[in-house]
Design brief:
The chain is of the alpha+beta class. Helix content is 33%, strand content 33%. Strands 1-5-4-3-2 form a five-stranded antiparallel beta sheet, with helices on one face. Helix 1 (26-34) crosses helix 2.
Length: 126
């Protein structure tokens, strides 16, 4: 999918994600997601953008492989929104696989916590 134009990176991505559902409108959650970058300290390249629905960012870090971080917004009933954060990683060789498997437990925790925090931020209207 997003192999970083490197033929040595694995074709099939490894994937980890976390999600949360919160009492915030789709528009408020999109506003929070779309402000990632700049003053918030994240400088990823935007690879895909579906306003109000999805933002896909390149990891932009030195690591043995190539990856993306995707934020997906799904409206739910009662003005609630589900936010899913997913990493897709195309490892490069054994070091890329070792990196992935070492980081999976942390990623699962981080992505759930990130989703909850972003939904709380959106609900406050900040």
């Amino acid at each position: 999918m997003f192999r970083g134009f490197e033929r040595d990176n694995a074709y099939y991505a490894k994937r980890a994600s976390g999600h949360a559902v919160g009492k915030a409108s789709n528009a408020a959650v999109w506003q929070t997601v779309s402000t990632i970058g700049g003053d918030r300290g994240y400088y990823w390249t935007v690879l895909a953008l579906e306003p109000g629905r999805r933002l896909t960012l390149h990891f932009g870090m030195r690591a043995p492989g190539s990856g993306v971080l995707e934020f997906e917004i799904d409206p739910q009933a009662d003005d609630r929104t589900r936010l899913t954060v997913t990493a897709n990683w195309h490892p490069q060789g054994v070091w890329g696989l070792l990196y992935w498997y070492a980081m999976v437990p942390a990623h699962l925790f981080i992505f759930r916590a990130m989703s909850r925090a972003m939904l709380r931020h959106a609900a406050r209207g900040a």
